[in-house]
């Protein structure tokens, strides 16, 4: 039963979030698929707590036999155990590796210990509330084969698909550190600015989060090359991404780079292999990608950056800062690309801008994204479906019928079955929004999403923060 009420569910009070600014420079060896890097972080502790330690994610250490990722798959309930089989069969040359060469706090070497995908660091000077510290790291990375999302030579032959490619500071919030070992699903990061320089062989076109700072010295479709510039063996690409919580890039010597400005919106960039059948399909879907971005901008909240890139890279589709990686091989016909493109662009809102902890609340990013990507497809393709997310209801109900459903509070890495994770986070999350729309009305549902964006973009909301928005626009206690 519903009652009208004047006392509401509790949203996060006294909210704070940590802040980190990254300056990184890497030197890529395209022959050995490795790079050495220098990283300087300015980490600001906005919490009320004194921090004695900090943690980093070292994701690529998961991509080798015997890792936690491999063991989790080997011991999974699902009888497929594909991840384990893939990792166990990797040639040693294709294992990933992240080595921390040195680490300093404010100029002094400090102790650190690599525990597979997590780096534990003892600060010599505890970081007091409201204070900042500088962490300088030298590191070396060997790029793994693409096993999950990132790596070298993906199924389309894209040389570098570089997601989660750098030592990445773990998030600390009012629930403490989130230094989870990487088991294959979902992310959570610290908001800040990224200044990234990538030195790579001059034949490679680099696509990345952030704005290229020296386009006239680079060319490669970003700008007309300054005629005075003679390219050396390597080019130095400098990107700045402001107000993000991650940074990704991809590079390939065969990328075509199309630039599509949107009226009153960002400039869209498309990067894809110069090979059939992509030449046709990756042109044909571009107007739809523009429509999707517009739909989300109009219905949730204005896209806040000046650039968005759709990059052929990775495996399947995955969302990143100011860009997405989508494979070509699975989607040769442009119509097959539309669903994944709508989904990945929608993720810019749910979870990139509304940066929930995906591991804990996967339904808030995958579910909300699934709901809104179906709505965008319905409009952009003129489908006129009365229930655009009918598939989500069907998927969820079919899983419920198995009797194997687990609670939505299950950690994303700890679902017993992949299908259960999918049905819960994608389908049930989508069903949650449409059921909410049934209760408060579709107009109020969109108003709730807009208020949620207004209040929580560039932050890290939790379930009650959204519910509170739905209560405020509807006047109901939910
Ligand atoms: Zn998704």
Automatic annotation (TrEMBL):
Stretches assigned to the Peptidase M1 membrane alanine aminopeptidase domain: 292-475
Gene3D superfamilies with a match to the protein in the record: Neutral Protease Domain 2
GO molecular function: metallopeptidase activity; zinc ion binding
PANTHER family named in the record: LEUKOTRIENE A-4 HYDROLASE
Annotated protein name in UniProt: Peptidase M1 membrane alanine aminopeptidase domain-containing protein
Species the sequence originates in: marine metagenome
């Amino acid at each position: 039963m519903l009652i009208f009420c004047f006392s509401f569910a509790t949203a996060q009070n006294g909210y704070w979030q940590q802040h980190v600014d990254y300056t990184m420079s890497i030197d890529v060896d395209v022959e050995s698929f490795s790079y050495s890097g220098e990283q300087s972080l300015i980490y600001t502790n906005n919490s009320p707590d004194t921090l004695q330690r900090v943690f980093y994610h070292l994701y690529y250490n998961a991509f080798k036999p015997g890792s936690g990722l491999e063991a989790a798959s080997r011991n999974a309930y699902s009888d497929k155990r594909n991840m384990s089989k893939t990792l166990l069969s990797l040639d040693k040359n294709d294992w990933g590796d992240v080595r921390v060469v040195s680490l300093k706090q404010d100029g002094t070497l400090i102790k650190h210990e690599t525990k597979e995908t997590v780096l534990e660091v003892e600060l010599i000077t505890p970081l007091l509330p409201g204070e900042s510290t500088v962490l300088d790291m030298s590191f070396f990375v060997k790029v793994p084969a693409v096993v999950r999302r990132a790596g070298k030579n993906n199924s389309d032959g894209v040389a570098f698909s570089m997601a989660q490619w750098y030592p990445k500071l773990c998030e600390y919030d009012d629930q403490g550190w989130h230094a989870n070992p990487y088991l294959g699903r979902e992310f959570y990061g610290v908001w800040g600015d990224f200044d990234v320089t990538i030195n790579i062989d001059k034949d490679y076109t680099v696509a990345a989060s952030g704005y290229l700072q020296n386009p006239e010295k680079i060319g490669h479709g970003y700008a007309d090359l300054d005629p005075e510039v003679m390219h050396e063996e390597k080019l130095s690409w400098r990107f700045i991404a402001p107000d993000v919580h991650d940074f990704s890039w991809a590079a390939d010597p065969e990328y075509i780079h199309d630039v599509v400005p949107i009226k009153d919106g960002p400039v869209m960039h498309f990067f894809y292999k110069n090979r059939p059948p992509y030449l046709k399909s990756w042109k044909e879907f571009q107007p739809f990608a523009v429509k999707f971005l517009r739909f989300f901008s109009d219905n949730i909240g204005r896209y806040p950056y000046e650039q968005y890139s759709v990059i052929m890279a990775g495996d399947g589709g995955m969302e990143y800062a100011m860009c997405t990686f989508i494979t070509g091989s699975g989607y040769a016909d442009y119509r097959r690309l539309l669903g994944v493109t709508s989904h990945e662009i929608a993720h810019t809102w749910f979870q990139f801008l509304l940066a929930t902890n995906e591991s804990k609340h996967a339904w808030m990013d995958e579910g909300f994204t699934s709901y809104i990507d179906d709505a965008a497809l319905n409009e952009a393709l003129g489908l006129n479906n009365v229930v655009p997310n009918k598939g989500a209801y069907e998927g969820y109900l079919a899983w419920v019928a198995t009797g194997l459903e687990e609670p939505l509070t299950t950690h994303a890495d700890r679902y017993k079955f992949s299908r259960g994770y999918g049905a819960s986070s994608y389908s049930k999350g989508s069903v949650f929004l449409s059921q909410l729309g049934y209760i408060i009305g579709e107009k109020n549902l969109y108003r709730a999403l807009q208020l949620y964006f207004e209040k929580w973009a560039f932050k890290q909301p939790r379930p009650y923060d959204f519910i509170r928005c739905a209560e405020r626009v509807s006047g109901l206690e939910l």
